[in-house]
Amino acid sequence: MSLHESSTFTCNVSQPNPPDHIPVENRGVHTYIGFFEAGKYPEALELNRKELKRCLDDGKVAPETIHVRLDEALILAFMDEVDEAVGCIGRTYNDCVRAHDENHKFALRTMVQYARILNCAQRYAEAEVWSEKACRLYEKNFGRTNPLTLSAIFQRAMILDMLTSPGAAEAAEQLYEQASAGREAALGPEHHDTIESMHHQADCLLRHNRLDVAKDVYEKVLSACRTSEENAKERYGAPNRQKVREVEEDAKAKSKNIGSPHKGY
Known about the structure:
There is one protein chain. The protein is globular. The chain has a domain of about 120 residues. With about 260 residues, it is mostly helical. Helix 3 runs antiparallel to helix 4, helix 6 runs antiparallel to helix 7 and helix 9 runs antiparallel to helix 10.
């Protein structure tokens, strides 16, 4: 799985321990992803670009090269090289459209990544344009309940959540709910993507002072986290298990504080 296929995109994430057991000379996607997850972004970028050169030298056009180029843009964004990241993703999108068309899966993935990076750059209005287009085309080509469509919907909810324009907050709530319900039906309530959607949904409701509804969703998150932890070892990797634990602690604290006179929300 490439970095850009991860549904979470935030520049402030806790990272697992560095992958010191992986020799630097062992180039490849899994190696640079390990360095990225450890917060070693310069090392990740160096290995990513070696992998990109190897893909190009081997004549690999898709999907390997596109995946690696999308990852390059994401690593650059985490290094605060946002302008370079935006340029990288723009070139990748144009290449995808020229080679295929805007409905092709590579172009759709690039649209979602474009929106995510613009969002990280706080260019929220532009991000929303790309995100809306990606959602519309994913639904057209894959259907409303497809996990890829639901991931695009979730990303759009996060972007709308950052906007202050009229109606953005309500639209974000609705999209979070749609993503959570869709992922629960498609993936199961204990899947880490479902948990992530519900967690963001609850946070959104809490910020908008819809406390009773937020508390209910937090309780649902906690129940799903407990089930997920029981099944995680066999079904998910260590980083996802760590993320579930972090979500559980956050949801537990916020659910407990709802209704407190000193809750601070």
